[in-house]
């Protein structure tokens, strides 16, 4: 059982992962670059626990108890040695992740993981002193609502690390799948293909974004349509993923010009207030 853990990065994914770990019984330290960001991350986790209690997912007492297990730090080097798991959740930039992971590896955790939706596990493992302890744990946003975790094993990932990751997901109440290290893994590769085709349909005037989303939600029972999901993920993030997959698999993953133009215009989805939907009210409203 994971009792002591750290999450590197206090963004949306890091906050969600920290929440899941604490709710699963672990003591968690969130590492951010300065005191202000640590304070913001801890406040965000506290709000997530409050909402968990409000919607009945946890009792108020259990939410308060779990929230008390989350602390913060401004330095990886201040983490105790030998943690059960360290999960890196910084932005999807290879050099940044490799730098952070190298610092984490010096703390010699039992399991070292990266939260990535598509970067190569073997590339990130290069230079790590114990690559057999390293793998990918691809959580989905929002972590507290999404049950899937994609466990990505590299060429040098040990059976012990794989088993540890499976046990961790079970402890967190998540459902896991295991995939080998390949560009886009399984979920991102499938999801981005659907999203790009939906964008091409908008580009060609086949249907409005809301109608395309409704087709997938009602016709195929997807909980959310591909264009609304793109707005939540971020159009800039999806553009980067598409370009990475295009380099690996060719033009079937070529980003539509519409996506390129929207990113250039600053229409990035919910975080900018405008994407395939208007988010200025906080909710998705079809654009006119």
Task: Please tell me about this protein's structure.
By secondary structure, the chain is an alpha/beta fold. The protein has two domains: 4-180, 3-Layer(aba) Sandwich (Rossmann fold), CATH 3.40.50; 187-276, N-(1-d-carboxylethyl)-l-norvaline Dehydrogenase, domain 2, CATH 1.10.1040. It is 45% helix and 15% strand. It contains eleven helices and ten strands. The protein has helices spanning 12-23, 35-54, 60-67, 94-105, 121-125, 159-171, 187-203, 209-219, 226-233, 235-249, 257-264; strands at 4-8, 27-31, 70-73, 85-88, 111-114, 134-139, 148-153, 175-180, 277-278, 285-286. Strands 3-2-1-4-5-6-7-8 form an eight-stranded mixed β-sheet, sandwiched between helices. A two-stranded antiparallel ribbon has the order 9-10. Helix 1 (12-23) links the parallel strand 1 (4-8) and strand 2. Helix 1 (12-23) crosses helix 2 (35-54). It is globular and about 55 Å long. It starts with a strand and ends with a strand.
């Amino acid at each position: 059982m994971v009792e002591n853990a750290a999450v590197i990065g206090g963004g949306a994914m890091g906050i969600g992962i920290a929440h899941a770990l604490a709710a699963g019984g672990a003591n968690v330290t969130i590492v951010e670059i300065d005191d202000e960001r640590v304070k913001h991350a801890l406040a965000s986790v506290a709000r997530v626990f409050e909402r968990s209690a409000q919607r009945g997912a946890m009792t108020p007492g259990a939410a308060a108890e779990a929230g008390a297990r989350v602390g913060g730090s401004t330095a990886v080097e201040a983490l105790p040695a030998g943690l059960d798991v360290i999960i890196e959740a910084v932005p999807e930039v290879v050099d940044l992740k490799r730098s952070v992971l190298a610092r984490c590896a010096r703390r010699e955790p039992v399991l070292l993981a990266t939260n990535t939706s598509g970067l190569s596990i073997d590339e990130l493992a290069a230079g790590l002193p114990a690559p057999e302890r390293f793998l990918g744990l691809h959580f989905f946003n929002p972590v507290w609502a999404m049950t899937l975790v994609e466990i990505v094993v590299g060429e040098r990932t040990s059976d012990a690390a794989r088993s540890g990751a499976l046990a961790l997901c079970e402890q967190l109440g998540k459902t896991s799948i295991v995939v080998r290290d390949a560009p886009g893994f399984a979920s991102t590769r499938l999801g981005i293909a659907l999203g790009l085709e939906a964008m091409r349909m908008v580009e060609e005037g086949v249907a409005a974004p809301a109608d395309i989303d409704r087709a997938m939600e009602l016709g195929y029972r997807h909980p959310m349509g591909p264009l609304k999901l793109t707005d939540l993920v971020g159009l800039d993030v999806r553009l980067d993923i598409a370009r990475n997959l295009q380099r690996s698999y060719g033009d079937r993953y070529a980003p539509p010009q519409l996506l390129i133009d929207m990113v250039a215009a600053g229409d990035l989805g919910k975080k900018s207030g405008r994407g395939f939907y208007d988010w200025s009210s906080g909710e998705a409203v079809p654009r006119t």
